[in-house]
């Protein structure tokens, strides 16, 4: 696919890197010569200096042949305008990153009179196929983690019937055991191991080590029993402390208080605290600094069931997560922009680091992939990707065994779902039209996998 990315900031750069690694033809457009030069030096993609919100620059980028245009500049309105112009000039699909929640749905115009009909404007009327709000994506991910039994990341597939969940290995078994020798209490497969900042698909003889993060795939109703191998289930989350009152922090607090959870939201900006207190009905808004251990202790944060750091500073979030863990908070979740910080956060003891960049990239991936793809997400940062395919009648792999289908070596079949039956491990039988197949693969191997499902 030919993909144009408008915006060469942190998000644009990393999305371009991911798409280039997946063998797509990528062009990056930005007004900053310095940002464009940084992309040119580090990535094997086409670069164009100029304002992507102008027809001249989009024509220079050959927008008329673009399969996808992704607008991720720092300005919502610019991103919408880029998508509108791109569609008018012939682009097939467009995605706009927006932060203003008013852009996320339909727009209803005012009526001329009380009895007159009101016009409904849909995003596609503006030339946008998909709005992505990073803060909304991150907030939903965090609330999903907090609602689970274990304080680790989880991804749902096949309508929630299959889960891939991350667990941290302690000093007890399965530490010291080879993957093939591990006896799991329910049918499950270890699809990935993260160690030292690198995530890979394990070989049967690989030995699990203390401190490893392993990723299990299983039927959702088996995850509770599997989780007991790695940790005692903590008590349900009833009290949550949040540091950072910017948009992501506000959305998490708002969502949690609507679920009846007691929330304390901390922010160092007094004006922001006053604005938050006016908007949140049940949340206790505290003016202070979550890097101050004495302040956290005085405010009773140490008794919270979970601590969430959502500031715009990755390093501060990691520091606060570590401090909360040292003060005895059982669950710690932070947000980061750079995926590289996920491994660092886990190494110092943070339970989960959610990357807004990967949340955005995961949504975009669904537009890039074809061949029956209905879900795609990253595992362990951006090293591996889990993709859910639905077998079509004409798919090359239909009625063939997965073991004999020619899947790339850096690929593992995580699960097959047929009607209400979840098959983990997937087995050696042929797959049929209508089956859901969840594949875990290195990003570079995804194009070869995709061809089998077309």
Report on this structure.
With 454 residues, the protein is of the alpha/beta class. The chain folds into three domains: 2-132, NAD(P)-binding Rossmann-like Domain (Rossmann fold, 3-Layer(aba) Sandwich), CATH 3.40.50; 235-329, 3-Layer(aba) Sandwich (Rossmann fold), CATH 3.40.50; 361-452, Regulator of K+ conductance, C-terminal domain (Alpha-Beta Plaits, 2-Layer Sandwich), CATH 3.30.70. It is built from 13 helices and 24 strands. Strands 3-2-1-4-5-8 form a six-stranded parallel β-sheet, sandwiched between helices. Strands 16-15-14-17-18-19 form a six-stranded parallel β-sheet, with helices on both faces. A hairpin with a 2-residue loop joins strand 22 and strand 23. Helix 1 packs across helix 12 and helix 5 (134-147) packs across helix 12. It is globular. It starts with a strand and ends with a helix.
List the helices and strands and how they pair.
Elements: E1 2-6, H1 10-21, E2 25-30, H2 33-42, E3 46-49, H3 55-60, E4 68-71, H4 76-88, E5 93-97, E6 107-108, E7 120-121, E8 130-132, H5 134-147, E9 154-157, E10 162-168, E11 188-195, E12 198-200, E13 213-219, H6 223-227, E14 239-243, H7 247-258, E15 262-267, H8 270-279, E16 284-287, H9 293-298, E17 306-309, H10 314-326, E18 331-336, H11 340-347, E19 352-355, H12 356-368, E20 373-379, E21 384-390, E22 411-418, E23 421-423, E24 436-442, H13 446-452
Parallel strand pairs: 1-2, 1-4, 2-3, 4-5, 5-8, 14-15, 14-17, 15-16, 17-18, 18-19
Antiparallel strand pairs: 6-7, 9-10, 10-13, 11-12, 11-13, 20-21, 21-24, 22-23, 22-24
Helix pairs in contact: 1-12, 5-7, 5-12
């Amino acid at each position: 696919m030919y993909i144009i990315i408008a915006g060469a900031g942190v998000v644009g750069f990393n999305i371009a890197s991911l798409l280039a690694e997946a063998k797509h033809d990528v062009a990056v457009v930005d007004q900053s010569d310095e940002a464009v030069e940084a992309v040119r030096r580090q990535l094997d993609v086409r670069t164009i200096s100029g304002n992507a919100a102008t027809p001249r620059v989009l024509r220079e980028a050959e927008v008329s042949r673009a399969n996808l245009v992704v607008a991720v500049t720092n300005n919502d309105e610019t991103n919408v305008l880029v998508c509108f112009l791109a569609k008018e000039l012939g682009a097939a699909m467009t995605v706009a990153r927006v932060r203003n929640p008013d852009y996320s749905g339909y727009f209803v115009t005012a009526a001329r009179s009380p009895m007159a009909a009101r016009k409904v404007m849909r995003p596609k009327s503006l030339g946008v196929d998909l709005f992505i709000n990073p803060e909304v994506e991150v907030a939903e991910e965090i609330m999903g983690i907090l609602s689970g039994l274990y304080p680790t990341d989880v991804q749902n597939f096949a309508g929630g019937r299959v889960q891939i969940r991350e667990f941290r290995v302690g000093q007890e078994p399965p530490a010291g055991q080879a993957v093939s020798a591990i006896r799991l209490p329910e049918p499950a497969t270890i699809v990935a191991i993260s160690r030292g900042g690198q995530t890979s698909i394990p070989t049967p003889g690989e030995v699990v080590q203390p401190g490893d993060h392993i990723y299990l795939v299983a039927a959702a109703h088996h995850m509770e029993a599997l989780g007991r191998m790695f940790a005692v289930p903590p008590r349900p989350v009833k009290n949550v402390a949040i540091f950072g009152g910017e948009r992501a922090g506000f959305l998490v607090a708002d969502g949690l208080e609507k679920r009846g959870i007691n929330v304390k939201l901390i922010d160092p900006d007094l004006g922001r605290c006053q604005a938050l207190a006016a908007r949140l009905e049940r949340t206790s808004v505290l003016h202070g600094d979550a890097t101050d251990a004495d302040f956290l202790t005085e405010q009773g944060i140490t008794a919270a069931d979970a601590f969430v750091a959502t500031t715009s500073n990755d390093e501060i979030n990691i520091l606060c997560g570590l401090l909360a863990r040292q003060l005895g908070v059982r669950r710690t979740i932070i947000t980061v922009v750079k995926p590289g910080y996920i491994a660092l956060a886990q190494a110092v003891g943070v339970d989960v680091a959610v990357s807004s960049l990967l949340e955005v990239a995961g949504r975009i991936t669904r537009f890039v992939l074809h061949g029956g793809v209905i879900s795609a997400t990253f595992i362990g940062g951006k090293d591996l990707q889990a993709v859910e395919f639905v077998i079509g009648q004409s798919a090359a792999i239909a009625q063939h065994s997965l073991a004999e289908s020619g899947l790339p070596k850096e690929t593992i079949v995580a699960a097959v779902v047929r009607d209400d039956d979840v098959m983990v491990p997937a087995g050696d039988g042929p797959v049929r039209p209508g089956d859901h197949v969840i594949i875990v693969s290195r990003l570079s191997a995804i194009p070869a996998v995709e061809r089998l499902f077309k």
